[in-house]
Amino acid sequence: MLDPLHQFQITKIIPLSLRGWDISYTNSALWMTIGLSVVCLFFYVSLRREAIVPGRLQATAELTFTFLTDMVKTYIGREGMPFFPFIFTLFWFVLMGNILGLIPYSFTYTSHIAVTFSLAIVAFIAANVAGFKKHGFGMFRLLLPKGIPVFLAPLMVLIELISYLARPFSLSIRLFANMMAGHLILKLFASFSAMLAGSSLAVLGIVPLVLNIGVTGLEFLVAVLQTYVFTLLTCLYINDAINLH
Prior knowledge:
Blueprint: E1 12-14, E2 17-18, E3 21-22, E4 25-26, H1 27-47, H2 56-75, H3 84-100, H4 113-135, H5 153-165, H6 167-197, H7 206-243
Antiparallel strand pairs: 1-4, 2-3
Helix pairs in contact: 1-2, 1-3, 2-3, 3-7, 4-6, 4-7, 6-7
């Protein structure tokens, strides 16, 4: 059986070192570059000839822009519009990582906790910087909900603090775990099909193959859904810091 974990292995394409630090260009970096190139090409082709009555590509580009604008305004408010470029970039970066990873022999960079945690911690830090900039140390009111009895305040602050600090971990693990689990299932079913094809039970190899087709469709939906969830939760965390909700 093929190794289902091999697809997550980081390999060096261009070995590089800077003062003892390994900064090699890897397969993960390659697919990030491809994802960036696809997004830039998509918006360039879509918007290079803007029309009053948009075509399919222009309508799709404008729809994603409007969708993310409405998300920021709805879940953060107009005060959150300075974060729109970050939310827009985050959405497309995660979406490309999830979708491109479904291509055979590609690499799903969002299936690595180092990548998803980096995204989550940047969002967490940005939210806190914005919160402190607006409220100063009054931002700590977020840790004590209104109406809590005084004798319960220390316990509630501790619980809220742990919950608050756990946000980047839960945000990153949710995306990483969903992407990794889905790709493991796809690889296992493909391995079963390949293994049965070379045996006397070759006809049974059709079963895992059909299942794999269904799982691939499901994985596409999960890829889009997890992108939405990651972006939405980022907006909610920024809203909490800015509006103390």
